[in-house]
Amino acid sequence: MPWALLKYGFSRRYPARVDIPPPQALRPSYDVVIIGGGGHGLAAAYYLAREHGIRKVAVLERGYVGGGNTGRNTTVIRSNYISPEAVRFYKKGVEMYQGLAGELGYNLLYSRRGQLTLAHTEASLRTFRLRAEVNRHLGVRSRMVDLEEIRDLVPCLNLSRRVRWPVLGGLWHADGGLARHDAVPWGYARRAVELGVEVHQRTEVTGILRSGNRVTGVSTSRGELSCGHVLQAVSGMSSVVAAMAGLRLPIRSFPLQAMVTQPVKPFLNPLVSSASLHAYVSQTARGELVIGGGSDPYSLYSTRSTLELKESLIAGVLGLFPFLHELRLVRQWAGITDMTPDYSPIMGHTPLEGYWLDAGWGTWGFKAIPVAGQSIAQAIATGRVPELIRPFALDRFYSFNLSNEAGATAASH
Question: Of the candidates 125, 150, 319, 356, which lies 20 to 30 Å from 132 by C-alpha distance?
Answer without folding.
Answer: 319
